[in-house]
Known about the structure:
- The complex is a heterodimer.
- By secondary structure, chain A is an all-beta fold.
- Chain A has no helices and 12 strands.
- The termini of chain B are far apart.
Amino acid sequence: AQSVTQLDSHVSVSEGTPVLLRCNYSSSYSPSLFWYVQHPNKGLQLLLKYTSAATLVKGINGFEAEFKKSETSFHLTKPSAHMSDAAEYFCVVSVTGNQFYFGTGTSLTVIP
Amino acid sequence: EAGVAQSPRYKIIEKRQSVAFWCNPISGHATLYWYQQILGQGPKLLIQFQNNGVVDDSQLPKDRFSAERLKGVDSTLKIQPAKLEDSAVYLCASSSRDRLSGANVLTFGAGSRLTVL
């Protein structure tokens, strides 16, 4: 069975400090992993994806994520938070190609 | 390319009334999904179509929810009769195979926000 656990429901950081949003997955097969961002009253936007190529994945807006198979993790990071990063972030796993499993989300607050 | 189109963006109805949401996926995307997102929660899959056939509707409350994708392109999700707990954002997504990686990637519409009074 596949599942995704986002370890923090809320994260607060000060503007200009690093961001770390944690995601662990459970999968019987080699997964594809994604991070999506959702700003208030908007749809979900793809930030980045891991699909069995390079384990360090770069996405939009300066975000990165590293796939660690030994730790079954796919944590999202950004060196310096910006006010516009305040949003809800979802970690997603896919193993069969067309089925996607969502985490419960992490709400990121950026303090000026 | 044009994105996933959804309408209406907002809808307010009273309980026991009916409502319909429309979705037009990205051209050429064979797989279409409807998700329900209740405030403060992650998206929950309601139904998945492959062309005009249903792949997964195990979490669709079939006594009140229905969905169709008759020509394998656009889709309609209907709720009849609505309950208070149906208040949510209804997200439509379609997926395509990424050319470089071969993985399927979801693209979402902006969503339709339903308020049931």
